[in-house]
Specification:
about 325 residues, alpha/beta, 7-stranded parallel beta sheet, 5-stranded parallel beta sheet
């Protein structure tokens, strides 16, 4: 019997499907791991968002063989403990592509079509037809990260006639939705021509605090920078400096160096910043998609198809 502990309590339909479809598995569903003490020592598989794990829990689970992280971010996992016990880790990379790409296109359209200004005019009962409207067509979009999310952003952007440039480590990508692909090391050359810069980069040793003040200086004065990847891409003091000096046209941040953003934070007061509370990936289809990946991997786990797992993490690299 394979004992599966889920620190996520999914909708009844998902729970019922798992229990009925996998008779050789014993499922235990919890809202978090705090209530799972009685079964932790016996679990073989753990389903988690990855933020509730620590080294102590790993040591308390001698039979644990696989951690299925139901998000893309895994930077908070206790990798030293996981590596020491050679526990397999998979994540839900790819399920965020549709909602996050739609978020990006929505924000870009909002900017060029002046949606916030029109909403403000409505609140003030003001009929103003002199707002300056732009278009996305022929705008240059620079996407930092060309994985599933970056590719979906590129696909939607091409539908609006935008020029799409992707940056990654290798300078190559299997996508028809980029007009050009360059390496991250060429970023300084690409920034001056970009109208929109969108980061979907994960948190790694290479990307942590990667963007400096000088990078924003290289951007167009009217450029829009958007970060929907990880909050440790830019230090907060640099964000303040860029906004205060109005180095670029606008900034959209869905992620921050420290979350949740404190009510007293000065960031709330900038008119050239749009803040959203780390919600660009949220969708009603989030868990159904994540559990589809889990089911695929569960079948491989049961059948011992060690080379077939979806989104298997390289424990040495941490991604």
């Amino acid at each position: 019997m394979i004992r599966v502990v889920s620190a996520i309590d999914p909708p009844l339909e998902i729970r019922k499907n798992l229990v009925e479809s996998y008779k050789g598995c014993e499922f235990h569903f919890f809202k978090d791991l705090k209530n799972a003490d009685s079964i932790i020592e016996e679990m073989d598989v753990l389903i988690t968002y990855g933020e509730d794990l620590d080294a102590e829990l790993i040591h308390l689970a001698p039979h644990l063989k696989w951690i299925s992280v139901m998000s893309a971010g895994i930077e908070k996992l206790p990798f030293d403990a996981i590596r020491a016990k050679d526990i397999m880790v998979t994540n839900a990379r790819g399920i965020h592509a549709i909602p996050m790409a739609e978020y990006v296109l929505g924000m870009m359209l909002s900017h060029v079509k002046q949606f916030p200004a029109m909403a403000l005019n409505q609140d003030k009962h003001t009929w103003n037809r002199k707002l300056s409207f732009g278009e996305l067509k022929d705008k240059n979009l620079l996407i930092l990260g060309t994985g599933a999310i970056g590719c979906e952003i590129g696909r939607l952007a091409k539908a609006f006639g935008m020029n799409t440039i992707g940056l990654n480590r290798s300078g190559s990508a299997n996508s028809a939705f980029f007009d050009d692909i360059r390496t991250i090391s060429q970023m300084d050359d690409m920034l001056p021509n970009a109208d929109f810069i969108v980061s979907v980069l994960p948190s790694t040793v290479e990307t942590k605090w990667m963007l400096k003040y000088k990078h924003f200086v290289l951007m167009k004065n009217e450029a829009v920078f958007m970060n929907i990847g990880r909050g440790d891409l830019v230090e907060e003091n640099i964000i303040h400096e860029v906004l205060e000096n109005q180095v670029i046209g606008h900034m959209v941040l869905d992620v921050f160096p420290s979350e949740p953003l404190e009510k007293e934070s000065k960031l709330w007061s900038y008119s050239n910043l749009t803040i959203t509370p780390h919600i660009s990936s949220i969708s009603q289809k989030y868990l159904p998609r994540a559990f589809e990946i889990f089911e695929t991997n569960l079948q491989h786990f049961i059948n011992k198809n060690d080379n077939e797992y979806v989104n298997k993490i390289d424990l040495r690299k941490g991604y």
